[in-house]
């Protein structure tokens, strides 16, 4: 079995950019293989309290440590796909192709700041697929003119990446995963019960994604005690366990907080892997590998980041890698086409 990539997720919504820079450096020293970050304008709640600019930060982070990095973004709405293609190409050139990008249809929380009417999901999906095609054409050195859900005129990148960056589709539902299987280079989704994850993976493969890499953003809450783990998750992440059909349309942190007013600690446990026991996290992550995910990016949703990095670097990552090394060849499968 191929050794998995175990990465650290840097949450711009929860920490100031200078703090996150230090945390990814600590993660690299602790043995994490890679980093990834969110790309938000607003946090989901006031308790999270931050909103650094992902693209500015990535330039510093990739210079500060040698990890490969990824970013989850919406390349249409508050951004134009040609501008995102240029940003990606520049980072790829400066940092030896160590960048992958995941694209999604966005949330009103971030994209609606431009004042445009918030589109329906089918409209956002059309816009996303066209934006992805525009970026891929630009990375190939083409001059792009495009009319449709996005408009482009006479765009050409003169500083090209040495190879086109890996472009993943960010998908939460089976329907979106199947739709993206044919045009994305791979899939990224978020942790949830195994049967739900298996359905998303199967849908992506069914839609044309067979043999493409599978990435998982793992939502967990570890702290030195069980009580700290659940309390920290409740404080920071209770607005993030609402269904996507609700959250995609909420435009401000205040609306997220109002929508999450009745979320309980039991609700948190159904969406976030809460445990103070490193062995329990190893078991959960081994299950992810068995589903075919061999790129796992760990997001500890509470504020105990330094302790989490130290604990997982010592007690989780080595055991997970050993388990992968001991597994029979082909025991878990999925990603044979890997450019990260």
Describe the protein in words.
The chain is of the alpha/beta class and 340 residues long. It has a single domain (5-326), classed as Luciferase-like domain (TIM Barrel). It is 44% helix and 15% strand. The chain has helices at 17-30, 54-64, 81-94, 108-111, 121-139, 174-180, 194-209, 226-237, 244-247, 253-259, 265-271, 278-290, 305-315, 317-326, and strands at residues 5-10, 34-37, 69-73, 99-103, 144-146, 152-155, 167-170, 186-190, 214-221, 273-274, 295-300. An eight-stranded parallel beta barrel has the order 1-2-3-4-7-8-9-11, surrounded by seven helices. Helix 1 (17-30) packs parallel to helix 2 (54-64). The longest helix is centred in the middle third of the chain and has 19 residues, at 121-139.
Shape, please? globular
- Main beta sheet: strand number and arrangement? 8 strands, parallel, barrel
What is the rounded Rg?
A: 19 Å
Average pLDDT works out at 94
The helix fraction, in percent, is: 40-55%
Q: In what range is the share of β-strand residues?
A: 15-25%
Low-confidence regions: 332-338
Total separate domains? 1
CATH class: Alpha Beta
Strand order of the largest sheet: 1-2-3-4-7-8-9-11
- Secondary structural class: alpha/beta
String of helices and strands: EHEHEHEHHEEEHEHEHHHHEHEHH
Cα distance spanning the termini: 17 Å
Question: What's the CATH H-level homologous superfamily?
Answer: Luciferase-like domain
Write the CATH architecture name: Alpha-Beta Barrel
- Write the CATH fold name: TIM Barrel
Number of strands: 11
Number of helices: 14
């Amino acid at each position: 079995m191929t050794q998995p990539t175990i990465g650290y997720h840097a949450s711009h919504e929860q920490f100031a950019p200078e703090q996150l820079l230090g945390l990814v450096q600590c993660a690299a020293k602790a043995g994490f293989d890679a980093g990834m970050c969110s790309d938000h304008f607003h946090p989901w709640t006031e308790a999270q309290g931050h909103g650094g600019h992902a693209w500015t930060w990535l330039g510093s982070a990739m210079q500060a440590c040698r990890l490969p990095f990824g970013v989850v973004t919406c390349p249409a709405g508050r951004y134009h796909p040609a501008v995102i293609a240029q940003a990606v190409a520049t980072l790829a050139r400066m940092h030896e192709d160590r960048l992958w990008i995941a694209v999604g249809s966005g949330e009103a929380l971030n994209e609606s700041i431009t004042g445009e009417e918030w589109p329906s999901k089918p409209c956002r999906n059309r816009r996303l697929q066209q934006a992805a095609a525009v970026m891929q054409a630009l990375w190939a050195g083409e001059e792009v003119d495009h009319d449709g859900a996005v408009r482009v005129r006479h765009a050409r990148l003169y500083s090209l990446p040495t190879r086109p960056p890996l472009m993943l589709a960010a998908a939460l539902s089976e329907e979106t995963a199947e739709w993206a299987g044919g045009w994305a280079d791979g899939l990224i989704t978020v942790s949830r019960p195994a049967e739900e994850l298996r359905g998303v993976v199967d849908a992506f493969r069914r839609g044309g994604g067979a043999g493409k890499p599978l990435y998982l953003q793992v939502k967990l809450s570890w702290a030195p005690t069980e009580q700290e783990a659940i309390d920290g998750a409740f404080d920071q992440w209770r607005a993030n366990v609402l269904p996507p059909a609700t959250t995609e349309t909420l435009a401000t942190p205040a609306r997220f907080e109002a929508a999450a007013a009745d979320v309980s600690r039991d609700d948190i446990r159904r969406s976030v892997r809460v445990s103070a026991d490193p062995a329990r996290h190893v078991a959960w992550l081994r299950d992810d590998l068995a589903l075919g995910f061999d790129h796992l990016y760990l997001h500890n949703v509470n504020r105990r980041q330094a302790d989490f990095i130290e604990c997982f670097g010592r007690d989780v990552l080595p055991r997970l890698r050993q388990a992968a090394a001991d597994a029979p060849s082909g025991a878990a499968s999925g990603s044979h086409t890997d450019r990260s």
